[in-house]
Amino acid sequence: MAAVEDVAAYLDACGHGTVGTDIMRHGFLGDFDDEAGTYDNLILVTQPGGMPAVQAFAAKVSDRPSVQVFVRNTDMTTAQAKADAVYDDLDGLATTTLGSNTYLLVTADSPPVELGRDGNRRAIWVVGFSLMKRN
After folding, report:
1. Which residues pair with 81 in a beta bridge?
2. Which of 54, 58, 67, 123 could lock 79 by a disulfide, CB 3.0 to 4.6 Å apart?
3. What are phi and psi of 34, to 5 degrees?
4. Sign of torsion, CA 70 71 77 81?
5. Is residue 26 scored above 80 in pLDDT?
6. Which of 22, 28, 17 is CA-nearest to residue 41?
7. Which residues are paired to 23 by β-bridges?
8. Which of 10-19, 21-30, 41-50, 54-63 shows the highest mean pLDDT?
9. What is the distance between the alpha carbons of residues 15 and 33, in angstroms, rounded to a whole number?
10. Domain ranges across the chain
11. Fold exhibited by the domain 3-134
């Protein structure tokens, strides 16, 4: 399972929503900004890339993927609160199994950042995370 799927499932387990209903994964920002307003309140987990794997004695020790978690809501205060809760639940998570993978550490790249509002006036916040996944 990819990091984006692991994180989406973890957010589901933490009560932030339900994968496939109001937690989406492997999406693109274009899909996220649906002008039809189909999904007003949701969380989108994407995987923009990551850092090079950690090597030791010519062997890969761990992968270092990254994920971005976008929170969109019709209410700015609710969007910020959800982004803050995602930040609190993931930042500093250490030596834990998500899906079938063991993550040695999950750290936020920064606190949640407000991106503003989309064309339908829905508030959008984002927080990025760097992960270290054991091979």
Report:
1. none
2. 123
3. -75, 115
4. negative
5. no
6. 22
7. 19, 43
8. 10-19
9. 23
10. 3-134
11. STM4215-like (3.30.2000)
